[in-house]
Amino acid sequence: MRIFFIIVSILAAGIVSAQTLDDYLKIAAENNPGIKAKQTEFQAALQKLPQAKSLPDPTVNASFFLSPMMLPMGNQLGSISAMQMFPWPGSLDAMENEAAKMAEVKLQAVTVAQNELFFKVKSAWYPLFELEEKIKIQRENLRILETDKELATIKFQQGQAPMVDAIRADIMIDEAKTEIAILEQKRKPLEVAFNQLLARDAASPVTISGILPEPVVGAAAYRDSLIGNNPILAVFDKQIQAAKAEEKVANFMRKPMIGGGLQYMPLVKRKGHDVHIEPNTGKDMFMPMVSVTVPIWNKKYDAAVEERQLMQLMYADMKQDMQNDLTAMYEMSFYEVEKMAQMVELLNLQMVKTQQAIDLMMAAYSNAGQDFEEILRLQQQLFRYRTEKVSAQTAYQLALVKLDYLTGK
């Protein structure tokens, strides 16, 4: 059993460690209550289709006389009738189409919510990635500083360098340890925020795997036309289509409704007379009925049609306004992508040159024991460049995430 539990633990750890950003996106899409709410709203909208295409409920009327009505064939005590109204041909199809178009709006809202959720998840993922990389850099910085301290101590013991060199290294070691501790403390709030987006326990482990891609200048040259793929613009298109369907239904409201029914009036034996009439002898009265609504208030129907037409114009203007905003955000995001790519190129060049200077000065210090303070300064500068590069890479990825969000990718 012990071996079994060890194997299960190893497999479970392997599954957790194998989780990627795509895995987390899938978890978020399945668990997020906002997505579930939008999907439920769509399912509810679908239930309006059978309602829209159904005939109006029939009406049944029953009445009786407090005093029987005397007729030649007997006494009439009351009557019972049933009536069914029928909308103008094509009205039910138009109403069903209207309900279907409204359901499409709700379905498109699911895509919009998913696009926004993925944007939030990715935006929370890359800061975690950045944090892990910075912790790795600081740990390597700590290891280098400890090596520097050992070297300075040896040089002091050999009488080739002052003791202050080792103290300088020790001061920076304390700074590096404090920075690592601060970064470690930052992990928890970032993981809690990330797990909230995934709608799971705040203490669930979050595994970060892989490396930040190296930015490439000009790699994100998306076409502006791709902004048209943003799902929120499609919502306005669906709303315009739904308004057109509503306009068609409003036009059908001008048409009369025709009703058909039947009234039955039973006759019973009249008391106190010599003439004997058996009830229900075929002389009971059946009266077919026809009813027609007369839609004469044209102003009401004209206003209903114009309302739907104005809504179409409103949605078209809202779409254009949103498209303008998306275009402006796209340009700024594209600028950030290009800026961060150029920044990484500069930092790569600076790191190469700084490392060359460190190698030359380390060789001189090993021989003469001089310029140790400058070595420490250059080493810290190199690690600052590395840290800045990680931040630039993260900003580059976040800008790409923004572009993906704007283009609905």
Q: Can you put this structure into words, describing what you see?
A:
It is a single chain. This protein is of the alpha+beta class and about 400 residues long. It has a single domain (about 1-30, about 85-255, about 295-405), classed as Outer membrane efflux proteins (OEP). About 65% of the residues lie in helices and about 10% in strands. Strands 1, 2, 3, 4 and 5 form a 5-stranded antiparallel β-sheet that branches. The protein is rod-shaped and about 140 Å long. Residues about 1-15 have low confidence and may be disordered.
Spell out the blueprint of helices and strands:
Layout lengths: L1 H16 L3 H11 L1 H14 L1 H5 L6 E13 L2 E13 L4 H67 L6 H34 L33 H22 L5 E8 L1 E2 L16 E8 L5 H71 L3 H36 L2
Antiparallel strand pairs: 1-2, 2-3, 2-4, 3-5
Task: Give a quick precis of the structure.
The chain has nine helices and five strands. With 409 residues, it is an alpha+beta fold. Strands 1, 2, 3, 4 and 5 form a five-stranded antiparallel β-sheet that branches.
- The CATH architecture comes to Up-down Bundle
Beta-strand segment tally:
5
Distance between the termini: 48 Å
Which residue ranges are poorly predicted, with pLDDT under 50 across at least 5 consecutive positions? 1-17
Count of DSSP H/I helices: 9
Helix content: 55-70%
Main sheet properties: 5 strands, antiparallel
Strand content bin = 5-15%
CA-based gyration radius:
40 Å
Specify the overall morphology.
rod-shaped
Derived from helix and strand composition plus strand pairing, the structural class reads alpha+beta
Number of domains: 1
